Amino acid sequence: MRARVGRVLAASAIVLGAVSGCTAPGPAGPGAVPYLAGLHDVRPCPGITGFSCAMLSVRLDPFGPAPGRLSLQVTVSDVADAPRGVLVFLTGGPGEPGVPFVPWLTGRLGPALRGYRMVMFDQRGTGAGALNCPALQQQMGASDLTVPTPAAVRSCAAAIGPSRRYYATADTVADIEALRATLGVSRITLDGVSYGSYVAEQFALAHPAQVAGLRPGGGPVQVGPGRRGAHPARPAQHRQGEHLRRLGRSAPRAGRVGCRTGAARPERPRPGAPARRTRPQ
User: Fold this and answer.
1) Which CATH number is associated with domain 2-130+170-249?
2) DSSP-based helix, strand, coil % in the chain, nearest 5
3) Which helix (H) or strand (E) is 72 found in, with range?
4) Domain regions of the chain by residue span
5) Which residues share a beta bridge with 213?
6) How far is CA 94 from the centre of its chain?
7) Cis omega before residue 94 (within 30°)?
8) Separation between Cα atoms, residue 43 and residue 31, nearest integer Å
9) Which residues pair with 121 in a beta bridge?
């Protein structure tokens, strides 16, 4: 995963420097922390200087009546001022936690983070509450392309149980919206690596009015057919890519996303579908 991160961090730094977010300025110092009020177990992050760690409580089923909640670990930078607002950086996989990568990412993005309050979190199914399917993870290894055996998929599905239907991208998008509301900001800037870029794009499509800036790229979404060296896009991918490009064209600055056009939430996997892979890349 770190090799993939390294290939896109330079582009992230350039775009973040160009993005002028629509979020309101952050609180005036680490002592005034209203953005942490809705989080639980707030404390200094062990081994991560300048960040507070906390827990975000979200519904297991963001879109239905199923009971249960999940606790997701969140880390928030203790910057004195954040005139550009909140930047949520999303790791990839699927399956990468976010909090452990904070020191590594901040060290490489460096000056590009000035003016932002950086936030990272462990997406549902990762981190301390990671889904665990040893046989499936052993077969997949570090590959995004290896096809696991049906037996490994069935074993993983049985181990996770019926709750496996609540670990789709749409559910993570709902968690980001819950995080935004909990932090008390009207809009957020999103960046991501690999699958994290895809999640960022899905959030922008589902909640355009809550997005101040977006760095689409480095992910699995094809933004249009006919590009040199690109595989032909499927129709659904092409439509999504065209929508994202329209959002980008409506923004007055590079890296901005328009705050007007909406999009439908992606469908959740059918009950019994294999859970997403959880091995770090």
Assistant:
1) 3.40.50
2) 40, 15, 45
3) strand 69-77
4) 2-130+170-249
5) 189, 256
6) 10
7) yes
8) 13
9) 74
Place of tokens 């629509």: 22
The model carries a pTM of 0.70
Burial class (CB in 10 A: 0-12, 13-18, 19+), 120: buried
Mean pLDDT of 233-262: 39
How confident is the model over 36-54, as pLDDT tens digits?
A: 889 999 999 999 999 999 9
In sequence order, the 6+-apart residues with CB closer than 8 A to the CB of 83 are 25, 26, 115
Cβ density class 238-274: b for 16+ within 10 Å, e for less: bebbebbeebbeebeeebbbbbeeebebbebbeeeeb
- Distance from C-alpha of 225 to C-alpha of 75, rounded to nearest angstrom: 38
Q: At what angle do helices 169-183 and 195-206 cross, to 10 degrees?
A: 70
Q: What's the CA gap between 58 and 47, in Å, rounded?
A: 26
Element (DSSP H or E) covering residue 174: helix 169-183
Tally of CB atoms within 10 A around 186: 15
